[in-house]
Amino acid sequence: MKDDPVTDELRRRGRAVVSGIYGSDYDVVYAMLESLDQRLADGAVGFAYGQVYESLRLEPKTRELVLVATLAALSYPDQMVTHVIAAEKCGATEEEILDALLLISTVAGFPCVIEAMKRVRKHFRRKQAGAPPPPEPG
Prior knowledge:
Elements: H1 5-22, H2 26-36, H3 38-55, H4 60-73, H5 77-89, H6 94-108, H7 110-128
């Protein structure tokens, strides 16, 4: 990607936001995106995190719960689980995550929420068993 002071600043701010959420896992998240396409990684970090996320007045936990519910409604289970992990890192409990999913059942439909809850419960079972999270697709 061409050097551009605005783009570079957005990526810098984005890295700070993502690092604040994922901590030491930032490198894993970025590497997964980068393995798909460098422009995708830079765009996700710079635009989504550096511009949009940073400008929101929502608390990080609330923001992640909204993303979990939205990704569930859109049937993006892998990305949903990534944001479940982010929601946990931002202080969300298993109950709050399940409540966010239950809330969308009225607009997204029960089948979508059932599938999302299966994935979330599987994530928490793995976590309680001490198993590492599954590798990112890609």
